[in-house]
Structure formats: C-alpha cells, structure tokens
C-alpha cells in the first residue's frame, strides 16, 4: 500500500498513537479514511470529465468534417445553378442556332412540301350507260 512495507506502517501507527493519544486516534483514523475516500472520488470525477472532454473534441471534429462536406456540396450546387454561366450557355446555344453554318443535323434534305389549296378539283364521273369517262 503506497509503496510502504509492514514495518514502516507500524512505525507510523506508533508515532500516531504517541502524538494523538488513545482517545483521539479512532476519530483521526475516520478523518483520514474520509480524506482518502474524497480524494478517490475527486480523481474519478476528474477522470470522467477528461473522458467527456476528449469525447466532446471528437464530436467537434466530426461536426467540422460534416460542415466541410456540406460546404463542398453547397459550392457544387451553386456552380451548377449559377445563373451567369447558365445564361452564357443559353446564349452560346442560341448563337449556334442562329448562325448560318450548317450542322450535321441540318445537312439532311428538307421534306417535300405540299401546297394546300381550297380550289375545287374537276370531278371524274362515269357514265353508267356507256362505261366511259366523261
């Protein structure tokens, strides 16, 4: 106990009996026991507090990592939804459509257009008796 041997503990007990006397020795032993109990509880509380602080620092590091990930995601989203770049892309596309340069898709021949008129077409009737076209 505390690196003391049996003979050293006996010497301390004899000195305590000589100085305190047989009347005060039991109360002094109780006070010493209370002191060691309180010291042990205090050391346990300090240990628990340190463990909580270490855990809090780990949680804080995790929170900072999540914050960094969120900021990176926000930056990516803002780059994608950036209106200036979107407008420039749209204007580039519109310029390409308006330009006179034919593209590969434009190289196909245009389909033949039919004209629609409301003029009456001559009717063809068969003469039933003769079987001829009139």
Helix-strand pattern:
HH
What low-confidence regions span 5 or more consecutive residues with pLDDT below 50? none
- Rounded average pLDDT: 77
The description of the largest β-sheet is: none
Radius of gyration: 51 Å
Cα end-to-end separation = 137 Å
Structural class, by secondary structure, is mainly alpha
Structure, explained:
It is a single chain. The protein is an all-alpha fold. It has one domain. 68% of the residues lie in helices and 0% in strands. It contains two helices and no strands. It has helices at residues 6-80, 83-98. It is rod-shaped, with a radius of gyration of 51 Å. The N and C termini lie far apart (137 Å).
In short:
With 134 residues, the protein is mainly α. The protein is built from two helices and no strands.
Per-chain topology:
Elements: H1 6-80, H2 83-98
What key phrases describe this protein's structure?
2 helices; mainly alpha
């Amino acid at each position: 106990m505390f690196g003391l041997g049996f003979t050293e503990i006996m010497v301390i007990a004899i000195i305590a009996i000589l100085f305190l006397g047989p009347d005060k020795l039991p109360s002094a032993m109780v006070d010493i026991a209370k002191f060691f109990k309180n010291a042990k509880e205090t050391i346990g509380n300090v240990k628990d507090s340190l463990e909580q602080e270490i855990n809090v620092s780990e949680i804080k590091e995790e929170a900072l990592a999540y914050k960094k990930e969120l900021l990176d995601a926000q930056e990516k989203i803002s780059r994608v939804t950036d209106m200036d770049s979107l407008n420039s892309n749209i204007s580039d596309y519109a310029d390409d459509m308006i330009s006179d340069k034919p593209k590969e898709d434009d190289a196909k021949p245009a389909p033949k257009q039919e004209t629609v008129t409301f003029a009456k077409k001559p009717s063809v009737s068969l003469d039933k008796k003769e079987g001829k076209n009139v």
